[in-house]
Amino acid sequence: MRRQGGLFPVLLLAMVGPLMALPAAAAEKKVAVFDFELIDTSLEGEINGVNPAQTERLTLLAPKLRADIDGEPDLVVIDVAPVAAEATKQTLSKCERCVLALGKQLGADIVVIGTVQKVSNLILNINAYGHEVATGKLVAQGSADIRGNNDEMWGRGIEALWKNTLKKQFQAIETAQ
After folding, report:
1. For residue 129, which of 99, 164, 91 has the smallest C-alpha distance?
2. If DSSP codes are grouped into helix, strand and coil, which group holds residue 149?
3. Which of 51, 71, 133, 173 could disulfide-link to 103, CB 3.0 to 4.6 Å?
4. Where are the domains positioned within the chain?
């Protein structure tokens, strides 16, 4: 009587066995990045009102930060559009509870809000804050000072904020998983 099985089960185990020993891949963290808000404490803003060029620049910051975060292997950016109308009704930078609630609605693990503080037409600060939705814990924060209120400086500012500060903090979140 011939015995079945032979070499095939041994080869299969040799190929699949090492894969079974690998740790499970870390789950991706879902990150919701809300639009940046302007905090204009300059005299110019008080006298002249809303500057359309600044308003346009402000809309470019969150998409840039989303793209940077999405480039990280264990982070995935989720769309904030489902809660965008509700988000614009509030000043998110002044209401952490509101941001966390919006993040829960989206199913996010981390929410990121940002501000541009305009001190004068020459001195501006781009700030970002990342909170863990489940605990409210601040897991990432940074600030980049820029000198000049123009497209180039705002672009350099958000790039520097990511490269010099936030990227390292988000990578630490990935490693802690």
Report:
1. 99
2. coil
3. 133
4. 26-175
* CB contact set of 162 (below 8 Å; sequence gap of 6+): 64, 65, 68
Cα 69-74-78 angle, rounded to 5 deg: 55
The answer to whether 78 and 107 are in contact (CB under 8 A) is yes
Q: From the options 3.50.50.60, 2.40.30.170, 3.40.50.10610, 3.30.420.40, give the CATH code of 26-175.
A: 3.40.50.10610
List for the chain the helix, strand, coil content (%; round to 5).
50, 25, 30
Residue whose token pair is 């939705």: 133
Token look-up 């509030």 returns 90
pLDDT tens readout for residues 41-58:
988 878 888 889 999 999
Higher pLDDT, 71 or 1: 71
Residues facing 125 on adjacent strands: 117, 145
Give the pLDDT band of residue 173 (cuts 50, 70, 90).
Answer: confident
What is the C-alpha to C-alpha distance for residues 142 and 120, in angstroms, rounded to an integer?
20
